[in-house]
Amino acid sequence: MTFSEYATEWRGSQRHLAESSVRQLDSLLGCHLLPFFGSRRMDSFDHKVVDEFVRHMEAHDVGSAAQSNAFDKLATILLDAHRLGVYEESPIIGVQHPQYSPARAVIPTAPQLASLRSQGDDSFRLLVDLMSGCGLRNGEAAAINLNNIVADDVYRVTEQVNQTTKKYGPLKHRRQGEYRDVPLPRRIRETIEWHAEKHGTVDGYLLRHPQDQTQAFRPYFFQNQWQRLRKEQALDIPEGMVIYSMRHFFASNCLSNGIAITDVAEWMGHKSIEITFKTYRHLMPGTLGQAAKLLDLGLAA
């Protein structure tokens, strides 16, 4: 069996993937894996073949994030074949993973965040609060629902507005029906309640399409308003700050106040803690010197 044949069968079994994940998988297969491995027999893979693929991507200036994602997908496929007995030893063993270090996050200060809240319309203020205060992705914030406040200080994230279908769908990296609970600061709850009282809701949803209340709010409405305000120089933000910086603020606020990075990773919906650690390690307040002093206090107690 060739890699192309095996990958096609394997892809058909990935029924649990969300639409966005399927698109990413197809892109990685079509752009990187199949052009390089398509006709190769599955029983001919070893660590040298895999390492050659990594060096090929490096030589052709494939972006570091794409290299990492393509390698991870190849590893998943070959691990599946290893479990089925195609290999006695996984062909991935001994191959160095492509190094990917996310760009340093540009994070708004508290005064900049306050300025952002006051510049756009009511939906803009609500979305800024949800992303910076609860760590929601913009698609998740677009699906904000009053019924998902499960406690005074807990919001249950159950769905997002899919960027492609423009409809409500499962969360990123989650199956239909799965959810995550996130902290709901008092100020953010008050913003939600203020918006609901002022504009009403439709089946609990605070945001709907402005021209058709039967349709979901589009995340790109937020992006359009952000770009317009930037063009008008109405936003007091530094170079490199983007909408996603609101989520960076949430992570920074958590970590600088001593909240465990494992909790932050769960609340932000990251697939693995490694992603959280790579992106926000520099925000963690702990240093070896500080750790030594804290440990010394405990030993002296």
Percent in strands: 5-15%
Topology pattern, helix = H, strand = E: HHHHHHHEEEEEHEEHHHHH
Q: How many separate helices?
A: 13
* Percentage of residues assigned to helices: 40-55%
Separation, N- and C-terminal Cα atoms: 65 Å
Q: What integer value in Å does the Rg equal? A: 23 Å
Low-confidence segments: none
Quick overview of this protein structure:
This protein is mainly alpha-helical and 301 residues long. It contains 13 helices and seven strands. α5 packs antiparallel against α6, α6 (122-134) packs parallel to α10 and α11 (261-268) packs across α12.
Task: Please give a structural write-up.
This protein is mainly alpha-helical. It is 52% helix and 7% strand. The protein has 13 helices and seven strands. The chain has helices at 3-12, 19-37, 47-59, 64-83, 110-119, 122-134, 138-142, 186-199, 219-231, 245-256, 261-268, 273-280, 288-300; strands at residues 149-151, 154-157, 160-161, 168-169, 180-183, 208-209, 212-216. Strands 1-2-5 form a three-stranded antiparallel beta sheet. A two-stranded antiparallel sheet has the order 3-4. Strand 6 (208-209) and strand 7 form a beta hairpin. Helix 1 runs antiparallel to helix 2 (19-37), helix 5 (110-119) runs antiparallel to helix 6 and helix 6 (122-134) packs antiparallel against helix 8 (186-199). The chain is globular. The termini are far apart. The mean pLDDT is 87.
